[in-house]
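Regression check, 6-O-phosphono-beta-D-fructofuranose case 431:
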Amino acid sequence: MDVDIGNALASVASPGVSREALDRLDEQVADAHERIEQGMANADHGYEALNLPERTDPDAIRATVDPLTDAGALVTIGIGGSSLGAATIVDALSSDTETVFLDNVDPEWVTAHLDRLPLEDTAINVVSRSGTTAETLANFLVAREAFESAGVDWTERTIVTTGESGPLRDLADRHDLPSLKVPDGVPGRFSALSAVGMVAAAVCDHDLDALLEGAAAEAETLTGSLYECPAYAYGATTYALDARGAGMNAMVPYAESLETYSEWFAQLWAESLGKDDLGQTPLRALGVTDQHSQLQLYRAGPRDKVVTFVRPTETADRSIPETEVDDLAYLGDASLGDLLAAEFEATEASLAAAGRPNVRVEIDRVDEYELGGLLYGMEAACVLAGELYGVNTFEQPAVEWAKKATRGLLGGGEFAEADAVAEKTELRVEQ
Ligand SMILES: O=P(O)(O)OC[C@H]1O[C@](O)(CO)[C@@H](O)[C@@H]1O
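Current build output:
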């Protein structure tokens, strides 16, 4: 990935970062890089994620999924980091395999998918690092029941990715299901470039080696300076802008194929940096569509956000036909790709003209190699930003309260959190 932070400079935007401040920040980046390198060398928890291009074994993944590669459809059951990485890869790339990600427990939505899918030709990919996540286990129990009701042997078409122990591991062992292990020391949201994100890609016959090669090439760029490393330039600049008031980061890819990537980025950024009353709130938007819904706010609302524009510089194109309407002649001479590119540059320039900070991120095209680089680059940017914020990037303790309350409400144990739910303050306004 290439990063352009020109429109984040104080000479262009407010909030903005001066060159002097960037130079000073670069000293902190050098120190942070040393800690990151040390963490990678020691395979420390979290930092180990940045070793995945070397650690992940694509042959083992291919061998394990091989019996499933003829499936016409794949249903992935997982949530958060156990879904978003895989979804980002398969939603970005075309495949003949229909893919569904059951990452919610909305009963109508789950039922609609299970009723619609050709279960006799559908493979199941169940993913949970902890092996205990209620939504994932519930959806798996519901899905396998649906397969049984359809007279389809789910044990013949299920693959599991989970840890050494836990209920999901027990189920996999009990039914002798093919399984892969989540890598040690890699938090879910940083595991796209492991079996967690790559089983679905393998079933869809995507090029796992190219994904890892793209990530490895990005890893080569990790040096001690934001002026040499695109990932660190992104992480340091967004951190510096947050310190100056840009507490939100709108991720705006200009490619429909990258819409799920914004969801993946939102978990990465929010769950990694959102702690100790710190962190930058990720917003998800899509170019050009949200120019017609969000741009007014981005350009004329509070000066509390940075906009990240992402685009592939090479895409397939489609010409716009000639028209008999004079006023539209300018379109007839162009293509959809020309229009997309013009809108990208015009919208970026419109924010700069209004003194609103924005950053450009470019990849050559949407393919496995470039996606590997983008995912790895943003993970490294997040790790660097976490070092600068001084937070524990790799834990997410704040999510546990609601999990305990949920479990208690369902009779899954005694939890004070569940009691607290009943003590809700009410001020209802009813129709
Ligand atoms: O992979 P698991 O353990 O099922 O967890 C799923 C997701 O839930 C979280 O723990 C948050 O609740 C995320 O960090 C994680 O990616």
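Comparison notes: The chain has a mean pLDDT of 97. The two ends are 52 Å apart (CA to CA). No diff flagged against the previous build.
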